[in-house]
Amino acid sequence: xxxxxxxLGAGCYLPExxxxxxxxxxxxxxxxxWIVQRTGIHERHIAAPGxxxxxxxLRAAQAALADANVDPQTIDLIILxxxxxxxxxxxxAVSIQAGLGITGGAAFDLQAVCSGFxxxxxxxxxxxxxxxxxxxxxxxxxxxxxxxxxxxxxTCVLFGDGAGAVVLEAQEQPGERxxxxxxxxxxxxxxxxxxxxxxxxxxxxxxxxxxxxMEGKEVFRHAVAMITDVVEDAFRATGYxxxxxxxxxxxxxxxxxxxxxxxxLGVDANKVIITVDKHGxxxxxxxxxxxxxxxxxxxxxxxxxxxxxxxxxxxxWGAALVRM
Length: 324
Ligand code: ACO
Prior knowledge:
By secondary structure, this protein is of the alpha/beta class.
C-alpha cells in the first residue's frame, strides 16, 4: 500500500476586468495580429485597484473546496505558489487561511515563478506522504499586472492576473501505476539562467518591488527542450508514454511553446488543454486555471491520466503525472 495525493476538486478565479489586445494597442506600439501570431493570447484579466493576490487565491480556494465538497476545517495544509505576494511577509497563504476561517495546520508560500504549481504539487505530495497531513489546499495565485512595466511592449502583452486551486487528500492506494492521485513528480532548476527572466527589485537588493524583465528569445530557445526532457523523465519513471495520456495540461505561457512541446513529445493536439488565449501567462496560476477549465467542461474525467508541466524564471521547470 502507498499514500497517494488524490485531487478531490478544483476551482479558479479570474478578475472581472478584461484587457484585450486591442486595448493594449492603445497603450504601447503593438497590434492584435502580432500578439496572437507570436503568443496565441487574445485577452487577459487585470485585478481591480486594491484587489490583492490573497483575494484572488481565496476565491479560487473557496471554489475548489465547493467543487470537492470539503469542509475548510478539514484542511491541515495550505501551500500558495506565487511570485506576487501581498507583502514581503507574512506569507500570503496565511491571509487565505484566515479568509477561510482555518486556525489549525500549516500555511506557507512557495516561490518557483511559473513552475510554482508543479513545485507546490511535489511539495504537497511529499508532505501528505509523511502521514502528518491529511488534506491540502494547493493554490496558484498571481497579480503580475503589478510587476509589469506597462511601457515595455516586449513583456506587458504576455501576462495577466488570476488564481486556481486544487484540494488534495492523502488516500491509501495499492501502490501501482494504475492508482489514483499523483503518480510521479520531477523538478529541475538551473540558476545560471537567472537573469533571463527576473524582476529588477526586491527587499534585500533595492527595497522596491521592481519590474519584470525578460530575454524573450532566450526563454523561448530553452523552453521546449527543458519541458520535453522533464516530461520524458516522468514517463520513464512510470513506464507510461505520450500515447497513454488522456490530457496534457501545460503551463499557459505561450501557444507556440505549448504546441512545440506537445509535438516533440508526440501528444495529440486534441489532448492539449489550452486557455492561454483567454488569460495570458498567469504564472503559477496557469496550470490550475487550465485544469479547472478542462474539469468544468467535462473533458477531464475521473480516472483520466494527466500530465502537468511548467517552465519559468530561474530557470525552474518540472512535470507531474496525475490520475484524476
Ligand atoms: N508588438 C509588436 N512588436 C513587438 C512586440 C509587441 N508586443 N514585442 C516585440 N516586438 C518586436 C521587437 O521589437 C522586434 O522588432 P525588431 O525586429 O524591429 O527588433 C520584433 O517584434 C521581433 O521580436 P522578437 O523578440 O524577435 O519576437 P519573437 O518572435 O521572439 O517573439 C516573444 C517574442 C513572444 C516574447 C517570444 O520570444 C516568446 O514567446 N518568448 C517566450 C517568452 C515567454 O513565454 N515568457 C513567459 C515567461 S516564461 C514561461 O512562463 C515559460
